[in-house]
């Protein structure tokens, strides 16, 4: 269990460094076709459906690859 926390921490640090030093690398994320955005005068609603599906698929593949003993 502690191995997963360490791995998650390293991944978060790497993502944080990428966002800090190269923010343009992830500009595409959250603006994919299928991500729904509704705007009116005073309200904004955003549903990143496709982006979350992609994250789910990637995490499922990684967990299945590295989670097997």
TrEMBL record:
The keyword rRNA processing does not apply. InterPro entries: DUF2905. The chain crosses the membrane at residues 5-25, 45-66. Keywords: Membrane, Transmembrane, Transmembrane helix. This is DUF2905 domain-containing protein. It comes from Saccharospirillum salsuginis.
């Amino acid at each position: 269990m502690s191995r997963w926390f360490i791995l998650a921490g390293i991944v978060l640090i790497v993502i944080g460094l990428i966002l800090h030093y190269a923010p343009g690398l992830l500009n595409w994320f959250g603006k994919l076709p299928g991500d729904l955005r509704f705007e009116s005068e005073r309200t904004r609603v955003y549903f990143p459906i496709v982006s979350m599906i992609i994250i789910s698929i990637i995490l499922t593949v990684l967990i299945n690859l590295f989670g097997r003993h």
